């Protein structure tokens, strides 16, 4: 059924296109400027400031060469972030999906009580200090890689998303599997999880983002430099001339010769790049996977 | 959505022990997550007692001596408590209100737009800022809005020298709200788009047959159907209204004394006081204060919502 567009609709659509384009432009612009800046020759940045366009005259990949010349700092941080992201995301998504599935089963008698038990942790919390003391004193988190994985392993928010999605899967599927003699866990793994692809994709991306972008836990628990993740390393390079000096000495340059501004920008690109590449593969699942439903019921 | 009936009926028939036996696999599937929240959320809740103790590292949480409300006195004496609370509350209110307006607004617009490629590409761009850490946001901001940044470069052509957004103390809250909207709108939009996608097409067709124009459709069909999602998102953020976004404030404002006056939130203050003078008791007192305020707020807001329409409550 195709109705001719009325005047009101044309006005609304025109407005929508303009506003969305404008907002999208402002969302993209900073990324563009940073990438351009990271490829701009240091002397140009220092004398003329940041430029809007790359030309043959101001182009230089020196900053990237520098960044990868100091393997100790960046490659190691990359390794840590990658490991934490992969292990953390796989575990966290499985955990949220499994919990969400059980709580969405209409035949599970305690689903409301347990849901509230989870949800209550978002209503009241002990605060940072008790949590930190327990993690560092009792679990000896300090300078262990699991201090970067455990704090983000389970989130009630993700569980709510999982539960809402699982509710949309017909219960008949579970019942049919039961009739065929499948156990609950088997049903979840072999029948529900493959059906829940949009959920897995959505939660997977958001959890991966959490791990990839984490610097907070690293700041809290990692006192020694050798075990820093990517974002925290970046923060240190950005904020301290010490870190830059270290890179300079490692690459055998004078501190004055180091393309400081360019290096900061190229590091920013390096620290962000890979995770953005995930998006196009997962985009088609988003709108299906992001249903927020009630906590109760 | 209430399917309570069947569960309760069975409970009566079989009794508790059999219920457990019957659901043992499902219970086992819940255990890892249950264990997680017990360890990382429930046990630290008892740590709020630190707020009433003269904590020292050797005696630990359990054996440190009690000291009454002394920690809260310290908190009050530092003279900042009221300002900090006000900052945290006002920032969060602005984030919530403008956040919902932007997210619902863009979701409505995107859902009406028919160009598939445009929709896909613009949605991807809106999402971009959500992908970067606050560390990166702060670099990007420095490079664009800082003293030698892109903006200052452009403005110098117009005769405005040495412009830096970080000197605009009075307008700074606007900057924070803008950054927040820039970073979060894409994510929130997807939540509402998902909700719109789940609406039945029949309602819109019926409205079209009745001759509703697009504004009427949005006002009388789409927005009312989005209400449950809007309420959930609203209530979930209200539950944290006295907790500042540490990552955002810490990375963007940092130790900028000029800006701290208008943008120090409870969380950044607690962190700084922990770093400079490790007064564990006072920091715990601040955390306890936040938790109590948040709890009281969410319980009362939820109660008010219940009076308006019980369908929309969180619990």
How would you characterize the overall build of this protein?
The complex is a heterodimer of chains A (297) and B (315). With 297 residues, chain A is mainly alpha-helical. Chain A folds into 2 domains: 7-64, no CATH class; 71-289, MetI-like fold (Orthogonal Bundle). Helices cover 72% and strands 0% of the residues of chain A. Chain A has 16 helices and no strands. Chain A has helices spanning 7-38, 42-48, 62-69, 71-104, 111-123, 128-138, 146-149, 156-168, 171-179, 184-195, 197-212, 216-221, 230-239, 241-250, 260-277, 279-289. In chain A, helix 4 (71-104) packs across helix 8. The relative contact order of chain A is 0.14. Chain B is flat and about 75 Å long. Chain B is built from 16 helices and no strands. The two termini of chain B are 14 Å apart. Chain B has 315 residues and is mainly alpha-helical. Chains A and B meet through helix 1, helix 4, helix 5, helix 6 and helix 8 of A and helix 1, helix 3, helix 6, helix 7 and helix 8 of B.
Write the layout of secondary structure elements.
The complex is a heterodimer of chains A (297) and B (315).
Chain A: H1 7-38, H2 42-48, H3 62-69, H4 71-104, H5 111-123, H6 128-138, H7 146-149, H8 156-168, H9 171-179, H10 184-195, H11 197-212, H12 216-221, H13 230-239, H14 241-250, H15 260-277, H16 279-289
Helix pairs in contact in A: 1-15, 3-15, 4-8, 4-11, 9-10, 11-16, 13-14, 13-15
Chain B: H1 4-14, H2 16-22, H3 24-46, H4 60-63, H5 70-77, H6 81-112, H7 116-127, H8 134-145, H9 150-157, H10 172-197, H11 201-209, H12 214-238, H13 246-253, H14 257-263, H15 266-276, H16 280-308
Oligomer: heterodimer
Per the CATH scheme, the topology name of the largest domain in chain A is MetI-like fold
Query: Number of helix segments of chain B?
Result: 16
What is the architecture of the largest domain in chain A at the second tier of CATH?
A: Orthogonal Bundle
Number of strands of chain A: 0
**CATH-level-4 superfamily name of chain B:** MetI-like
Radius of gyration of chain A: 24 Å
Structural class of chain B: mainly alpha
CATH third-tier fold name of chain B? MetI-like fold
Shape of chain A: globular
Number of self-contained structural domains of chain B: 1
Quickly count the domains of chain A.
Answer: 2
**What is the H/E order of chain A?**
HHHHHHHHHHHHHHHH
Strand proportion of chain B: under 5%
């Amino acid at each position: 059924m195709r109705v001719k567009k009325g005047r009101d609709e044309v006005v609304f659509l025109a407005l929508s296109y303009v506003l969305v384009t404008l907002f999208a432009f402002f969302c993209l612009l900073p990324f563009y400027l940073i990438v351009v800046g990271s490829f701009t020759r240091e002397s140009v940045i220092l004398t003329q400031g940041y430029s809007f366009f790359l030309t043959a005259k101001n182009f230089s990949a020196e900053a990237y060469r520098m960044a990868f010349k100091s393997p100790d700092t960046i490659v190691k941080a990359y390794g840590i972030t990658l490991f934490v992201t992969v292990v953390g995301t796989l575990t966290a998504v499985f955990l949220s999906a499994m919990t969400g599935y059980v709580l969405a089963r209409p035949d599970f008698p305690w689903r409301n009580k347990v849901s509230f038990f989870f949800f209550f942790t978002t209503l009241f919390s002990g605060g940072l200090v008790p949590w930190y003391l327990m993690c560092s004193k009792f679990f000896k988190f300090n300078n262990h890689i699991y201090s970067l994985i455990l704090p983000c392993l389970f989130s009630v928010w993700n569980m709510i998303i999982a539960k809402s999605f699982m509710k949309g899967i017909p219960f008949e599927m579970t019942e049919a599997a039961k009739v065929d003699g499948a156990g609950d866990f088997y049903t979840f793994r072999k029948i529900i999880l493959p059906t829940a692809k949009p959920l897995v994709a959505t939660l997977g991306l958001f959890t991966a983002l959490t791990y990839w972008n984490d610097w907070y836990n690293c700041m809290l628990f990692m006192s020694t430099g050798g075990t820093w993740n990517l974002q925290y390393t970046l923060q240190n390079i950005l904020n301290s001339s010490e870190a830059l000096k270290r890179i300079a000495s490692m690459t055998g340059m004078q501190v004055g010769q180091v393309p400081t501004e360019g290096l900061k920008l190229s590091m920013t690109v390096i620290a962000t790049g890979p995770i953005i590449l995930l998006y196009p593969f997962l985009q088609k699942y988003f709108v299906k996977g992001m249903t927020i439903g009630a906590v109760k019921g | 959505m209430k399917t309570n009936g069947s569960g309760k009926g069975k409970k009566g028939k079989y009794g508790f022990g059999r219920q457990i036996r019957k659901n043992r696999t499902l219970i086992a599937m819940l255990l890892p997550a249950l264990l997680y929240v017990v360890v990382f959320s429930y046990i630290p809740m008892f740590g709020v007692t630190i707020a009433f103790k003269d904590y020292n590292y050797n005696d630990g949480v359990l054996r440190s001596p009690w000291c009454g409300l002394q920690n809260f006195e310290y908190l009050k004496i530092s003279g900042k408590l009221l300002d900090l609370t006000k900052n945290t509350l006002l920032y969060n209110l602005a984030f919530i209100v403008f956040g919902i307006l932007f997210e619902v607004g863009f979701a409505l617009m995107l859902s009406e737009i028919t160009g598939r490629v445009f929709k896909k590409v613009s949605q991807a761009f809106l999402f971009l800022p959500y992908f970067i850490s606050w560390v990166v946001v702060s670099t990007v901001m420095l490079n664009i809005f800082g003293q030698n940044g892109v903006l200052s470069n452009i403005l110098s052509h117009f005769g405005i020298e040495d412009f830096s957004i970080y000197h605009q103390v009075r307008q700074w809250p606007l900057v924070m709200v803008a950054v927040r909207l820039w970073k979060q709108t894409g994510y929130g939009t997807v939540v509402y788009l998902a909700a719109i996608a789940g609406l039945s097409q029949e309602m819109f067709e019926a409205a079209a047959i009745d001759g509703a124009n697009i504004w009427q459709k949005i006002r009388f069909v789409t927005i009312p159907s989005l209400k449950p999602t809007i309420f959930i998102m609203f209530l979930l953020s209200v539950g944290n209204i006295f907790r500042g976004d540490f990552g955002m404030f810490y990375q963007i404002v940092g130790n900028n004394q000029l800006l701290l006056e208008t943008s120090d939130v409870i969380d950044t203050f607690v962190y700084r006081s922990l770093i400079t003078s490790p007064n564990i008791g006072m920091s715990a007192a601040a955390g306890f204060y936040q938790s109590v305020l948040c709890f009281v707020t969410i319980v009362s807001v939820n109660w008010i919502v219940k009076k308006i329409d019980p369908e929309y409550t969180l619990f």
